[in-house]
Amino acid sequence: MPGRLQNELKKRKPFVHIEQEVVLNLFRTGDRLGIRLERLLREHGLTGAQYNVLRILRGEGQPLPMQEIASRTIQVVPGMTGLVDRLEKAGLVCRARSESDRRVIYVRITAAGLTLIAQLDEPLPAMERKLLGGLTRDEKAELIRLLEKVRDHLEQLDE
Amino acid sequence: MPGRLQNELKKRKPFVHIEQEVVLNLFRTGDRLGIRLERLLREHGLTGAQYNVLRILRGEGQPLPMQEIASRTIQVVPGMTGLVDRLEKAGLVCRARSESDRRVIYVRITAAGLTLIAQLDEPLPAMERKLLGGLTRDEKAELIRLLEKVRDHLEQLDE
DNA sequence: GGAAAATACTTTACACATCAACTATTGTCA
DNA sequence: TGACAATAGTTGATGTGTAAAGTATTTTCC
After folding, report:
1. What span, in angstroms and rounded, lies between the C-alpha atoms of A23 and B131?
2. How far apart are CA B37 and CA B27, in angstroms?
3. Among A16, B30, B72, B92, who pairs with B113 as Cys (CB 3.0-4.6 Å)?
4. Degrees (nearest 5) of the Cα angle B89, B34, B156?
């Protein structure tokens, strides 16, 4: 049983390390899913990163500092600056400097931002269900468990 | 059992859809792994995308058209142009136009390119083993199976 | 009280990734 | 044959992600 990715990539030799196969499968599958989800978001004028920021702000229900937003996404702080710049220019969020600590900048979602992401509350989960339709519910749960276990171990490596 | 990602993202409400949890876990885990692998590659002056191209060319053993390389990576053709530009400028690959079909451009890995990626043949798999040390061999195999199943279903959606 | 460290954010530079539009070449077929 | 479609690759615009350096503000602590 040589594995499917191997054939897909037209590699000649079998994978020497199963770990490499895991990593490549992880990247490739994430990419394939991401492309389709980004496409849906783009129809509403948003990128994936922008949608994530708006969703986090809506979920929190109150303004959040730049760094707090960055820590909840895949992102590093420097990238957040430009991201919020674009969202602010589009009128979806606004900045406000903190009174107590003038280094901190709070980001707040605007009414226009709330309206925009509300339009995705139906189609986005529907798309996710469709994309993951190949797995049973048990398989989805098992996939989540395995991925969390990988990240748990990665965090241990940091300590 | 509320799930770990949920806590990690400091979300208030439980995930409504398990599919969303799968997608977020997939992105986040791939990102965490990618950051560490990219860091190792960068020590050798390469990015992940560049390393992939070199590895594909070495594995094939002969020059490949741009499009063929792109089809074996996560990449779209337009991005491949700039990527090969940079590799060529670094002296790691070279271009050659096909004789039979003058639209096609073949990319060949140079001796310098082979030397460079040979330096990663040891440390890269070692790093991958270390990063995935949290999973048993059976769990790695199961993770691969589930990810391949997701992609199989995605391909069916295209037909 | 004041120098030094820490923190929050921005700026800059570079490398991807995506899409749309463009050029050059080849294939189709009426 | 000759218009037209298809294909291979490039270019340009926009957005994202990383690292390194810079600025402003606050905290620490002697």
Report:
1. 10
2. 15
3. B92
4. 100
Two tokens at B128? 């991958």
Question: Residues of A with CB below 8 A from B134's CB?
Answer: 149-150, 152-154, 156
**B32 min Cα distance to partner chain A (Å):** 8
Å separating the CA of residue A125 from the C1' of nucleotide C8: 35
Contact between residue B44 and residue B127 where contact means Cβ atoms under 8 Å apart: no
- The residue type of B29 is T
Check CB contact under 8 Å for B72 and A10: yes
What would the pLDDT profile of B92-146 be if each residue is shown by its tens digit?
999 999 999 999 999 999 999 999 999 999 999 999 999 999 999 999 999 999 9
The whole-angstrom separation of Cα A51 and Cα B24 is 13
3-class DSSP state of A90: coil
Please check the confidence at residue B89 and state whether its pLDDT lies above 90. yes
SS3 content of chain A, % helix, strand, coil (to 5): 65, 10, 30
